[in-house]
Specification:
Radius of gyration of chain B: 12 Å
Oligomer: heterotetramer
Number of helices of chain A: 4
Largest sheet of chain A: 4 strands, mixed
Strand content of chain B: 15-25%
Low-confidence stretches of chain B: none
Helix content of chain A: 25-40%
Order of helices and strands of chain A: EHEEHEEEHEEH
Largest sheet of chain B: 5 strands, mixed
Order of helices and strands of chain B: EHEHHEEE
Number of helices of chain B: 3
Helix content of chain B: 10-25%
Mean pLDDT of chain A: 93
Distance between the termini of chain A: 24 Å
Strand order of the largest sheet of chain A: 1-4-6-2
Mean pLDDT of chain B: 95
Low-confidence stretches of chain A: none
Number of strands of chain A: 8
Distance between the termini of chain B: 36 Å
């Protein structure tokens, strides 16, 4: 089961996790990225490249399913404006054994960060706004899976 | 041949639009050539496309290096490095 | 925030995850272990060593909090009889950055498997029952964190 | 000195009880000694404690090696390798 969603709707964590708990799974891993509240951010805006985004996420999920023999892989990414504490991204994986689920989950979020066409814009509480720069640490994290 | 050019994030913001249709002259071979040529379109294009090291691109929704030939592309996207998740 | 629960009650995944999504967290990782439905198991019974179990899990969570600078660590382990598809264990971690949350989550489930005094007994659909043997692969997984 | 001995999993099942109170003689120094001595208590004890390689132990809820001296332990638990999660 592969599920790819890119949408401005809030992420329903319970519903998303329930979808990943497929029959036969012994382990389910998840990662949820949240808008951090601690650096003066009032609003985070996520822009993306419609069509290309979904295709990239689908391709990543397929790679993970083959590499780790996953029973389920789900990537749900929110776009548009969101507030601190809100969920930006959910990655869920299910496998017969836990190591596959855990490794595949880390792989998907690391590669998503560098490969999928999303861009973040931060609006601070004082009204100033800027586009977030890409981070070398994200490149490093993604590189360890190649 | 006309190409749809898409812009995202601060590239889009500086240019002032998300998409435009252009007809590059025959000597434009690669995406880098195209960026070079687009830079003269407006003051906003000039600013957005000034530093090619800060730009990434896709041809027909496939991510490619900037020295990739345009070929028969229908859609070319120009954008900053991604910052998702 | 450290939360340790050992109980026969079913694990409420949405409620447990919500508790881990603490203010300031940028990343939340979770692992859920499920009773596998695919090897003729009718019932899985979990026995534990009351008191020692909670102390072991608390100690593991504290180690993880210090080692990865976690904002939250939660371990919820079910005991008693349960059916295929039901949740046996939930591990949730929250950190400012994703790598800490992901690594700490993997650490906790790996170490829990080898360090915490739980014992599994499988009752098959044909009525036969046996105590599950410890696995060398669990020892290997736990050893990589030392 | 009396010690509470706890059994878990198939050790408990074979012995037929989860806990008992014992008063080991003075020559019982380590947990291995205790296991050896307990083995004679009943047929079930004999079966449960036959193979020391399959046993693990805790003194006062702290996991220890089987050659650990009992000392002033109040509670000793004997059980198979754990299989949780």
């Amino acid at each position: 089961m592969i599920r790819i969603v890119v949408s401005p709707a809030p992420i329903d964590l319970a519903a998303e996790l329930a979808r990943v708990e497929v029959p036969g799974a012994g382990g389910v891993a998840s990662f949820t990225g949240l808008v951090r509240a601690d650096d003066g951010i009032a609003t985070l805006e996520l822009e993306h490249y419609p069509g290309a985004t979904e295709a990239t996420l689908e391709a990543l999920a397929q790679v993970a399913c083959v590499r780790w023999g996953l029973l389920a892989a789900s990537i749900v990414h929110r776009v548009g404006p969101m507030a601190p504490g809100e969920r930006v991204v959910f990655v869920g994986t299910a496998a017969v054994h836990r190591a596959a689920a855990l490794d595949a989950c880390a792989f998907l979020i690391d590669r998503l960060k560098t490969d999928a066409p999303f861009w973040k814009r931060e609006v601070k509480v004082d009204g100033r706004a800027h586009w977030v720069d890409a981070r070398a640490s994200d490149e490093d994290a993604a590189a360890r899976w190649r | 041949m006309a190409i749809n050019v898409l812009y995202f994030a601060w590239v889009r913001e500086a240019i002032g639009m998300g998409t435009e249709r252009v007809q590059p002259p025959a000597h434009i071979v690669t995406i880098a050539d195209l960026i070079d040529w687009l830079r003269g379109s407006s003051e906003g294009h000039g600013r957005a496309l000034a530093d090619i090291a800060r730009l990434r691109a896709a041809i027909d929704q496939r991510f490619v290096a900037l020295d990739t030939p345009i070929g028969n592309a229908h859609e070319i996207a120009i954008f900053p490095p991604v910052t998702g998740g």
